[in-house]
Design brief:
The complex is a heterotrimer of chains A (287), B (266) and C (367).
Chain A (H helix, E strand, L loop, with lengths): L3 E2 L4 H26 L1 E5 L2 E4 L3 H8 L1 H31 L5 H15 L2 H11 L6 H8 L10 H29 L3 H9 L4 H12 L1 H16 L3 H7 L10 H12 L2 H27 L5
Antiparallel strand pairs in A: 2-3
Helix pairs in contact in A: 1-13, 2-13, 3-7, 3-10, 4-7, 5-11, 7-10, 7-11, 10-13, 12-13
Chain B lengths: L1 H26 L3 H6 L11 H8 L1 H34 E2 L3 H10 L5 H14 L6 H24 L4 H9 L4 H12 L1 H17 L2 H5 L8 H5 L3 E2 L2 E2 L1 H27 L8
Antiparallel strand pairs in B: 2-3
Chain C lengths: L3 E11 L6 E11 L4 E5 L6 H9 L6 E6 L2 E2 L10 E4 L11 H11 L4 H14 L15 H13 L6 E5 L7 H18 L2 E6 L2 H7 L2 E6 L2 E6 L1 H6 L4 H6 L6 E7 L3 E4 L2 E4 L2 H9 L5 E5 L5 E3 L7 E10 L3 E8 L2 E8 L8 E5 L6 E4 L2 E3 L7
Parallel strand pairs in C: 3-8, 3-9, 6-7, 7-8
Antiparallel strand pairs in C: 1-2, 1-4, 4-5, 9-10, 11-12, 11-14, 12-13, 14-20, 15-19, 16-17, 16-19, 17-18, 20-21
Classes of the chains: A mainly alpha (287), B mainly alpha (266), C alpha+beta (367).
Chain lengths: 287, 266, 367
């Protein structure tokens, strides 16, 4: 794309900038502020510098939950991105089945987070849920409340069920935006289906996929409600991911200072990894 | 190839529908039956859960409140994001790359981080417990998303089309509305849906920033958790009802999402 | 190389509508083997539709498409041995120019040596040798369009190349270069080429013969000169030439036709044609180039009022009012420009009679 240089373009961007800055900068400043203090009550605060940061980064429980979180987000990306693209490729482009498919795909996304957890909580139980019952019926000993591997499996499955549609919908609309002329030219060039995917569809999906990868990474890294409702973080600590660990600390100990520091660390981790994804995926655009 | 596609897609759709079927069935069962055993179809089919919801005024207003602020949010987001995305797509300007990435960084902190500061901020400017307040708060994460998605679609439209339109005598607003927007229909459709979706299911901020006037449906639902345990049936019914408006939104944007882009079809 | 025959061809996008709306109305047309043809017409006249029917991207709702006598309606584009160049450059962004050009050959499982020679040959003709290793995404618009054309040329088995307004996105300075390239390619390879455009200059420089389309019909098929001197249809007169033909609405009268008080005599062929028709839609047409402007008053010339003059360098266009009707005349650069009044006459050989929009031929066979 030949972009022309024009600082007047800032006028087009100004509303967005103001809107987002209003909601972002002040709260962020506040949190940074808290993270550097030890707050007992409204009037008793002490500046403690980076003490919270050091304490948190050395806390083994938090380190564990960080590792778990990375494994979780990594698995989520590895499954949902290819699956989402595959589903988008299979979806009909027009006709009534296209509408039906779109509707069905949208449904899991529209379920409130706590309801998602609730559904799977029941669904996965061997005594009253279809899924649990079916697995045990074919001989698999499955109990997500007692067995850490089963709990992990269920949490992952629940996330795949819930969020793959996002990747699929993004990819689908991205595919629809590819001009017919490309497919026509490929047809005249006698390209195979695989070549069409590799040289036309995948490159054109790049920007959409970038959004998909970033969104899924960020949201899965921050995930709270669904696994909390489903497993409560258990059995034991096996499915306690990062945000739950944060909440336990802030609510349980009612300590805003460390909670603030944790939030900043959280934010910085996501920022770093997202930036890495972003740079890697837009690398070819930078001439 | 087509057979494989249909089978694969069919399996995936089954996978998506089964838990939802379960939810639907739960909404028609009493709590004892839900917790009592496994039944594919309710033994005692009951509308009681739905009745509980429909007869309680706060459910109804919760619904309306949610619809209201989500619509506000969708409108604001799209109006603000479209020109910004166009700027990012067509122009280079000072700080453009940094601004673009900064936008997305606003989605990188868990909402819990923002609860207290938001509460203080919005209270101080008098936006507490207002629909516009929640709508604006949700803009924090919806606007960056909208800008990113729209920019991606806009960059897929060759710049030559803009130039041809100017040569043909179109003014910028006319070109934007009559020529450009129709070309990125699928992008607008998907953006609108995602804005709706993220705003609709967002619990934490919506609950924190409201008390009575603008209380959303999701917050009302937490009432199903009481001292005596979870009211599964009512929760399920509420869940079903919460899905419905989203279905409507998808219905309205379906043509936009699925529309292709025809090049040079003269 | 192929002869393309369109037999009783018609196309409607929506055959369920009643009455069906046709994008292409019944036509019979032959494109001879090895010729360079232009498909010219205004937006919406159906030329892109026709092109897509020829290439197989669109299946006609009625009639047949024949390649060398063989019906190809059901043959998909990849099996018709045609190449098509689109309005916007279609290149595989992630591949280098070399790989782009090699792509069709690789899909046909051609040998590496052959691919190499062919790609380099075409690259040289299109002056792309310098950018062979560049990624296609980084090229300029005209380079991309050349790559699109190149992909059509690398294949030996191409019987026809179809162009759908390919120079639309090219800079004006580069347009003429590419047009010349296309002509060279045609002379070298002798492939049948069909070139869709709405620009008559492009059409006349490129094509041996132009098919002018209007409202889904080919209204005239001939050399650029034929279309200029003998427009078959008032639309051809209006569209071709810059500016287009002047038209006067006339009525029948004793000697021939009259325009207000002015009588224009007709020759025998034209008179006969008038007798055979009951129509009241009669027009006289003459091109601005053929309107004779006298520098002195003349008995045979008509007096007209000069409205304004446009100086276009090598020629001038004078807008005149003749008995209330606006007409244009074209003057050579060195011709004197009349002020206020001008005297014009219409040489009989260039004054055309149109009945129901169609030309009445000057010589006829029913004398």
């Amino acid at each position: 794309m030949n972009k022309s240089h024009s600082n007047k373009a800032w006028f087009l961007v100004l509303p967005v900038f103001l809107l987002v800055a209003f909601s972002a900068i002040i709260p962020l400043m506040t949190v940074v502020n808290y993270s550097l203090q030890d707050i007992f009550d409204v009037s008793t605060r002490y500046f403690v510098g980076t003490e919270w940061y050091r304490e948190i980064l050395n806390d083994p429980r938090l380190q564990d939950s960080l590792v778990r979180q990375f494994i979780f987000s990594g698995s989520v990306l590895l499954i949902e991105i290819p699956l989402g693209i595959a589903v988008a490729l299979m979806m009909p482009k027009d006709g009534k089945w296209s509408v039906v498919t779109l509707l069905v795909l949208a449904l899991p996304l529209l379920v409130p987070l706590n309801v998602v957890g609730t559904i799977w909580q029941i669904f996965g139980r061997a005594d009253i849920g279809l899924f649990g019952w079916a697995l045990n019926a074919i001989g698999i000993d499955y109990n997500y409340a007692a067995n850490p591997m089963d709990a992990w499996f269920t949490v992952l499955l629940m996330d795949v069920w819930h969020w793959t549609s996002l990747v699929a919908l993004l990819s689908f609309s991205g595919l629809r935006a590819i001009p017919d002329a490309y497919y026509q030219a490929a047809s005249i060039d006698r390209a195979s289906n695989w070549a069409v995917f590799r040289y036309i569809q995948l490159p054109k999906l790049k920007s959409v996929l970038l959004i998909g990868v970033l969104l899924r990474f960020m949201d899965s890294f921050m995930i709270y409600t669904e696994p909390f409702v489903l497993t409560g973080g258990g059995p034991g600590n096996s499915t306690t991911f990062l945000s739950q660990a944060l909440t336990k600390m802030a609510v349980g100990q009612f300590d805003i200072g460390p909670a603030g520091a944790f939030s900043i660390i959280y934010f910085l981790i996501i920022l770093l990894v997202s930036w890495l994804f972003y740079t890697a995926m837009t690398h070819s655009d930078n001439k | 190839m087509n057979k494989k596609k249909t089978v694969g897609l069919g399996l995936y759709i089954m996978f998506l529908l089964l838990p939802l079927y379960w939810l639907l069935m739960m909404s028609f069962k009493g709590n004892e039956e839900i917790l009592g055993g496994l039944t594919f179809w309710p033994n005692d089919f009951t509308f009681a859960n739905y009745m509980t919801i429909f007869t309680d005024a706060s459910w109804y207003t919760g619904y309306l409140n949610s619809i209201y602020y989500v619509s506000l949010n969708m409108a604001i987001t799209l109006i603000v994001a479209l020109p910004a995305a166009y700027a990012f797509s067509r122009f280079r300007f000072t700080g453009d790359k940094h601004l673009f990435f900064w936008l997305l960084t606003n989605r990188m902190a868990p909402p819990a981080v923002f609860l207290l500061p938001f509460f203080q901020l919005y209270s101080s400017v008098g936006l507490f417990d207002t629909h516009i307040g929640v709508a604006l708060a949700h803009c924090l994460f919806n606007v960056p998303l909208a800008v990113w998605i729209l920019e991606g679609f806009m960059s897929g439209v060759p710049r030559e089309i803009d130039e041809t339109a100017y040569i043909d005598g179109y003014s910028f607003p006319k070109f934007f509305v009559k020529i450009f927007l129709p070309l990125i229909r699928s992008g607008i459709g998907v953006t609108a849906f995602f804005c709706f979706m993220f705003s609709w299911v967002e619990l934490l901020l919506a609950r924190t920033l409201t008390s009575v006037d603008a209380k959303p449906i999701a917050a009302v639902m937490t009432r199903t958790v009481s001292a005596s345990g979870i009211d599964w049936g009512v929760l399920a019914a509420a869940g079903v009802l919460t899905i419905l408006p989203g279905v409507l939104v998808i219905w309205f944007v379906r043509n936009h999402v699925a529309k292709g882009f025809a090049l040079g079809r003269v | 190389m192929a002869e393309i025959h369109l037999k009783s061809l018609a196309h409607s996008y929506d055959t369920t509508a009643n009455p069906p709306e046709y994008a292409i109305r019944q036509m019979d047309h032959v494109w001879h083997d090895g010729g360079a043809f232009a498909l010219l017409g205004p937006s919406g006249c159906g030329k892109s539709t026709l092109l897509n029917i020829i290439s197989g991207l669109l299946v006609p709702s009625e009639g047949d498409v024949l390649f060398d006598g063989v019906r190809v309606n059901d043959t998909p584009p990849q099996d018709r041995n045609i190449a098509q160049v689109f309005q916007f450059p279609v290149v595989y962004d992630t591949m280098t120019v070399f790989d782009n050009l090699a792509f069709p050959l690789r899909n046909m499982k051609a040998g590496t040596a052959k691919i190499n020679t062919k790609v380099r040959e075409i690259a040289e003709i299109l002056e792309l040798t310098d950018v062979l290793d560049k990624k296609a995404a980084n090229l300029t618009a005209d380079e991309k369009q050349k790559v699109s054309m190149g992909r059509g040329l690398v294949r030996d088995d191409v019987s026809a190349i179809l162009f759908d307004e390919p120079l639309t996105v090219i800079d004006p300075q580069l347009k003429w270069k590419l047009r010349r390239k296309l002509k060279q390619i045609h002379e070298k390879f002798n492939t049948t080429m069909v070139y869709v455009t709405h620009d008559q200059l492009e059409a006349s420089t490129f094509a041996d013969k132009i098919a002018l389309m209007y409202g889904g019909q080919v209204v005239q098929f001939g050399t650029p000169r034929e279309l200029f001197e003998q427009p078959n249809h008032t639309f051809v007169g209006y569209f071709i030439g810059s500016p287009g033909m002047n038209f006067l609405e006339v009525e029948r009268c004793d000697e021939g036709v009259c325009f207000g008080n002015t009588i224009f005599t007709l020759n025998n062929a034209e008179k006969k044609a008038l007798q055979h028709s009951k129509s009241t839609n009669l027009k006289l047409g003459i091109r601005p180039e053929f309107v004779h402007v006298w520098d002195k008053p003349n008995d045979d010339a008509f007096e007209t009022k000069v409205e304004f003059v446009e100086d276009l360098g090598t020629y001038k266009i004078v807008t005149l009012t003749f008995a209330g009707v606006s007409m244009k005349a074209r003057l050579q650069e060195d011709q004197q420009v009349p002020q206020h009044t001008a005297f014009i006459s219409f040489p009989e050989q260039w004054l055309m009679l149109y009945v129901d929009e169609f030309l009445v031929a000057k010589e006829s066979d029913y004398e």
